[in-house]
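ok trying again, last paste got cut off:
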Amino acid sequence: MSTESWLILGKDLRFKELALQLSLDFNNVIYKYTDQWNDEIQQIIMTERPERIVLPIHAVDLPKFAFESLPKETAIFVGKSNQSLQQELRYLDEKHIIHYLQDESYIWLNARLTSEGMLCAFYELESASVYGKSFYITGFGRVAKMLAFMLHRLGANVHILARSNSQIQEAIAYGYVASQLIPENIKEHYYLINTIPNKWLNEDFHQQLDEETKIFDLASAPGCLNIESDINYTLLPGLPGKYFPQDAADLLAQVIIRKNNELREG
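nice, full thing came through this time. structure:
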Protein backbone atom coordinates (compact mmCIF):
# COMPACT_ATOMS: atom_id res chain seq x y z
CA MET A 1 0.00 0.00 0.00
CA SER A 2 1.23 3.49 -0.88
CA THR A 3 1.20 6.12 1.80
CA GLU A 4 0.04 9.18 -0.20
CA SER A 5 -3.19 10.60 1.15
CA TRP A 6 -6.00 11.61 -1.21
CA LEU A 7 -8.99 13.93 -1.04
CA ILE A 8 -11.52 13.48 -3.84
CA LEU A 9 -14.47 15.82 -4.42
CA GLY A 10 -17.36 15.39 -6.82
CA LYS A 11 -21.03 14.46 -7.03
CA ASP A 12 -20.45 12.79 -10.37
CA LEU A 13 -20.40 9.03 -9.76
CA ARG A 14 -17.11 8.83 -11.65
CA PHE A 15 -15.38 10.33 -8.62
CA LYS A 16 -16.86 7.76 -6.27
CA GLU A 17 -15.52 5.03 -8.53
CA LEU A 18 -12.15 6.78 -8.63
CA ALA A 19 -12.04 6.76 -4.83
CA LEU A 20 -12.84 3.05 -4.76
CA GLN A 21 -10.09 2.23 -7.25
CA LEU A 22 -7.53 4.38 -5.44
CA SER A 23 -8.39 2.77 -2.11
CA LEU A 24 -7.04 -0.51 -3.45
CA ASP A 25 -3.53 0.97 -3.60
CA PHE A 26 -3.54 3.81 -1.08
CA ASN A 27 -4.14 3.69 2.67
CA ASN A 28 -5.82 7.05 3.10
CA VAL A 29 -8.47 8.03 0.54
CA ILE A 30 -11.18 10.49 1.56
CA TYR A 31 -14.14 10.94 -0.77
CA LYS A 32 -16.70 13.73 -0.33
CA TYR A 33 -19.92 13.83 -2.31
CA THR A 34 -19.85 17.54 -3.08
CA ASP A 35 -19.05 19.96 -5.89
CA GLN A 36 -18.55 22.83 -3.44
CA TRP A 37 -15.63 23.96 -1.32
CA ASN A 38 -17.14 24.28 2.16
CA ASP A 39 -16.08 24.46 5.80
CA GLU A 40 -15.88 20.67 6.07
CA ILE A 41 -13.47 20.48 3.14
CA GLN A 42 -11.36 23.29 4.55
CA GLN A 43 -11.20 21.47 7.89
CA ILE A 44 -10.03 18.28 6.14
CA ILE A 45 -7.35 20.30 4.36
CA MET A 46 -6.08 21.64 7.68
CA THR A 47 -6.21 18.41 9.69
CA GLU A 48 -5.47 15.68 7.12
CA ARG A 49 -3.14 17.73 4.88
CA PRO A 50 -3.74 15.50 1.81
CA GLU A 51 -0.94 15.11 -0.70
CA ARG A 52 -3.30 14.59 -3.63
CA ILE A 53 -6.54 16.53 -4.21
CA VAL A 54 -8.89 15.75 -7.10
CA LEU A 55 -11.31 18.57 -7.84
CA PRO A 56 -14.67 18.11 -9.63
CA ILE A 57 -14.93 18.50 -13.37
CA HIS A 58 -16.80 21.77 -13.07
CA ALA A 59 -14.84 24.65 -11.56
CA VAL A 60 -14.97 25.10 -7.78
CA ASP A 61 -15.20 28.55 -6.18
CA LEU A 62 -12.40 28.78 -3.63
CA PRO A 63 -11.85 31.14 -0.70
CA LYS A 64 -8.58 33.00 -0.45
CA PHE A 65 -5.64 30.93 0.82
CA ALA A 66 -7.62 27.69 0.48
CA PHE A 67 -4.41 25.72 -0.11
CA GLU A 68 -2.28 27.59 2.41
CA SER A 69 -1.91 24.73 4.91
CA LEU A 70 -1.12 22.02 2.34
CA PRO A 71 2.24 20.26 2.23
CA LYS A 72 4.60 21.67 -0.39
CA GLU A 73 4.51 18.43 -2.39
CA THR A 74 0.70 18.34 -2.66
CA ALA A 75 -0.60 17.84 -6.21
CA ILE A 76 -3.95 19.24 -7.37
CA PHE A 77 -5.88 17.50 -10.14
CA VAL A 78 -8.00 20.16 -11.82
CA GLY A 79 -10.96 19.79 -14.18
CA LYS A 80 -12.35 23.08 -15.45
CA SER A 81 -11.07 26.31 -13.97
CA ASN A 82 -12.35 29.73 -12.94
CA GLN A 83 -10.86 32.95 -11.62
CA SER A 84 -10.81 32.03 -7.92
CA LEU A 85 -9.26 28.63 -8.63
CA GLN A 86 -6.63 30.13 -10.90
CA GLN A 87 -5.80 32.66 -8.20
CA GLU A 88 -5.16 29.96 -5.59
CA LEU A 89 -3.21 27.76 -7.98
CA ARG A 90 -0.68 30.57 -8.41
CA TYR A 91 0.75 29.66 -4.99
CA LEU A 92 1.50 26.06 -6.00
CA ASP A 93 4.32 24.51 -7.97
CA GLU A 94 3.23 24.29 -11.63
CA LYS A 95 4.55 20.73 -11.81
CA HIS A 96 2.00 19.78 -9.14
CA ILE A 97 -1.01 21.14 -11.03
CA ILE A 98 -2.50 18.50 -13.34
CA HIS A 99 -5.31 19.49 -15.71
CA TYR A 100 -6.74 16.05 -16.27
CA LEU A 101 -9.33 17.17 -18.86
CA GLN A 102 -6.47 18.29 -21.13
CA ASP A 103 -4.92 14.83 -21.36
CA GLU A 104 -5.05 13.80 -25.04
CA SER A 105 -5.95 10.17 -24.45
CA TYR A 106 -8.74 11.21 -22.08
CA ILE A 107 -10.07 13.79 -24.56
CA TRP A 108 -10.28 11.32 -27.43
CA LEU A 109 -11.70 8.42 -25.43
CA ASN A 110 -14.23 10.71 -23.78
CA ALA A 111 -15.16 12.02 -27.24
CA ARG A 112 -15.87 8.44 -28.28
CA LEU A 113 -18.12 7.88 -25.27
CA THR A 114 -19.87 11.20 -25.93
CA SER A 115 -20.51 10.22 -29.53
CA GLU A 116 -21.87 6.82 -28.55
CA GLY A 117 -24.00 8.58 -25.96
CA MET A 118 -25.39 10.87 -28.65
CA LEU A 119 -26.47 7.81 -30.61
CA CYS A 120 -28.15 6.40 -27.49
CA ALA A 121 -29.94 9.71 -26.91
CA PHE A 122 -31.07 9.86 -30.54
CA TYR A 123 -32.53 6.36 -30.43
CA GLU A 124 -34.22 7.14 -27.11
CA LEU A 125 -35.68 10.48 -28.18
CA GLU A 126 -36.53 9.70 -31.80
CA SER A 127 -37.29 5.96 -31.68
CA ALA A 128 -35.71 5.78 -35.12
CA SER A 129 -32.62 4.47 -36.88
CA VAL A 130 -29.94 6.87 -38.09
CA TYR A 131 -29.61 4.91 -41.35
CA GLY A 132 -30.56 7.11 -44.29
CA LYS A 133 -31.10 10.17 -42.08
CA SER A 134 -29.27 13.45 -42.71
CA PHE A 135 -27.32 15.36 -40.07
CA TYR A 136 -25.64 18.72 -39.88
CA ILE A 137 -22.77 18.61 -37.39
CA THR A 138 -21.42 21.99 -36.35
CA GLY A 139 -17.72 22.13 -35.65
CA PHE A 140 -15.06 19.56 -36.47
CA GLY A 141 -13.23 19.02 -33.22
CA ARG A 142 -12.72 15.66 -31.57
CA VAL A 143 -16.36 14.96 -30.67
CA ALA A 144 -17.56 16.05 -34.10
CA LYS A 145 -14.98 13.83 -35.81
CA MET A 146 -15.90 10.77 -33.77
CA LEU A 147 -19.62 11.39 -34.23
CA ALA A 148 -19.34 11.99 -37.97
CA PHE A 149 -17.38 8.74 -38.30
CA MET A 150 -19.99 6.74 -36.37
CA LEU A 151 -22.97 8.25 -38.19
CA HIS A 152 -21.34 7.71 -41.57
CA ARG A 153 -20.53 4.08 -40.78
CA LEU A 154 -24.16 3.55 -39.78
CA GLY A 155 -25.41 4.83 -43.12
CA ALA A 156 -26.32 8.41 -42.26
CA ASN A 157 -25.64 11.43 -44.47
CA VAL A 158 -23.27 13.87 -42.76
CA HIS A 159 -22.76 17.55 -43.57
CA ILE A 160 -20.11 19.36 -41.53
CA LEU A 161 -20.63 23.07 -40.80
CA ALA A 162 -17.45 24.68 -39.45
CA ARG A 163 -16.16 28.18 -38.90
CA SER A 164 -12.51 27.70 -39.85
CA ASN A 165 -11.39 26.90 -43.36
CA SER A 166 -8.85 24.36 -42.06
CA GLN A 167 -11.65 22.34 -40.42
CA ILE A 168 -13.77 22.55 -43.57
CA GLN A 169 -10.90 21.30 -45.73
CA GLU A 170 -10.08 18.54 -43.24
CA ALA A 171 -13.70 17.35 -43.26
CA ILE A 172 -13.72 17.34 -47.07
CA ALA A 173 -10.48 15.34 -47.05
CA TYR A 174 -12.21 12.75 -44.86
CA GLY A 175 -14.93 12.49 -47.50
CA TYR A 176 -17.72 14.50 -45.88
CA VAL A 177 -19.75 17.29 -47.36
CA ALA A 178 -18.53 20.41 -45.56
CA SER A 179 -19.15 24.13 -45.71
CA GLN A 180 -18.87 27.31 -43.69
CA LEU A 181 -21.14 27.78 -40.71
CA ILE A 182 -23.28 30.64 -42.04
CA PRO A 183 -27.09 30.89 -42.21
CA GLU A 184 -27.19 30.53 -46.01
CA ASN A 185 -25.65 27.03 -45.80
CA ILE A 186 -28.42 25.60 -43.62
CA LYS A 187 -30.83 24.82 -46.42
CA GLU A 188 -32.11 21.31 -45.79
CA HIS A 189 -34.45 19.68 -43.27
CA TYR A 190 -31.67 17.84 -41.43
CA TYR A 191 -31.12 17.02 -37.80
CA LEU A 192 -28.58 19.44 -36.36
CA ILE A 193 -25.99 18.37 -33.77
CA ASN A 194 -23.95 21.16 -32.23
CA THR A 195 -20.47 20.60 -30.79
CA ILE A 196 -19.35 24.26 -30.63
CA PRO A 197 -19.35 25.76 -27.08
CA ASN A 198 -20.36 29.18 -28.33
CA LYS A 199 -23.73 30.96 -28.64
CA TRP A 200 -23.67 31.15 -32.42
CA LEU A 201 -27.31 30.25 -33.13
CA ASN A 202 -28.82 33.72 -33.42
CA GLU A 203 -31.94 34.99 -35.17
CA ASP A 204 -30.26 34.92 -38.60
CA PHE A 205 -29.65 31.18 -38.27
CA HIS A 206 -33.09 30.65 -36.75
CA GLN A 207 -34.74 32.19 -39.82
CA GLN A 208 -33.00 29.64 -42.03
CA LEU A 209 -33.96 26.60 -39.97
CA ASP A 210 -36.93 24.52 -40.99
CA GLU A 211 -39.48 24.78 -38.18
CA GLU A 212 -39.32 21.00 -37.74
CA THR A 213 -35.51 20.87 -37.50
CA LYS A 214 -34.43 19.19 -34.28
CA ILE A 215 -31.29 20.46 -32.59
CA PHE A 216 -29.19 18.35 -30.23
CA ASP A 217 -26.57 20.34 -28.32
CA LEU A 218 -23.52 18.42 -27.07
CA ALA A 219 -21.45 21.49 -26.25
CA SER A 220 -20.60 22.54 -22.74
CA ALA A 221 -22.05 25.72 -21.27
CA PRO A 222 -23.27 28.11 -22.57
CA GLY A 223 -24.44 25.93 -25.47
CA CYS A 224 -25.24 27.33 -28.90
CA LEU A 225 -28.55 29.18 -28.42
CA ASN A 226 -28.50 32.96 -28.68
CA ILE A 227 -32.24 33.48 -29.17
CA GLU A 228 -35.35 33.39 -27.00
CA SER A 229 -37.71 32.04 -29.68
CA ASP A 230 -39.37 28.68 -29.33
CA ILE A 231 -37.19 26.09 -31.00
CA ASN A 232 -36.96 22.30 -31.07
CA TYR A 233 -33.83 22.13 -28.95
CA THR A 234 -32.42 19.48 -26.63
CA LEU A 235 -29.36 20.10 -24.45
CA LEU A 236 -27.46 16.86 -23.83
CA PRO A 237 -24.71 17.39 -21.23
CA GLY A 238 -22.80 14.58 -19.53
CA LEU A 239 -23.66 11.82 -21.99
CA PRO A 240 -20.79 9.48 -20.97
CA GLY A 241 -21.87 9.52 -17.33
CA LYS A 242 -25.54 9.08 -18.22
CA TYR A 243 -25.26 6.14 -20.59
CA PHE A 244 -21.92 4.54 -19.70
CA PRO A 245 -21.23 5.38 -16.05
CA GLN A 246 -18.79 2.53 -15.45
CA ASP A 247 -16.81 3.16 -18.64
CA ALA A 248 -16.70 6.89 -17.91
CA ALA A 249 -15.57 6.20 -14.34
CA ASP A 250 -12.86 3.80 -15.51
CA LEU A 251 -11.62 6.37 -18.02
CA LEU A 252 -11.36 9.11 -15.38
CA ALA A 253 -9.64 6.76 -12.93
CA GLN A 254 -7.13 5.64 -15.58
CA VAL A 255 -6.04 9.19 -16.40
CA ILE A 256 -5.76 10.26 -12.73
CA ILE A 257 -3.75 7.17 -11.78
CA ARG A 258 -1.50 7.51 -14.84
CA LYS A 259 -0.90 11.21 -14.20
CA ASN A 260 -0.07 10.45 -10.57
CA ASN A 261 2.42 7.76 -11.62
CA GLU A 262 4.06 10.23 -14.02
CA LEU A 263 4.28 12.77 -11.22
CA ARG A 264 5.97 10.28 -8.89
CA GLU A 265 8.43 9.17 -11.56
CA GLY A 266 9.24 12.74 -12.58
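cool. The CA atoms of residues 258 and 264 lie 10 Å apart. The chain is about 40% helix and 20% strand.
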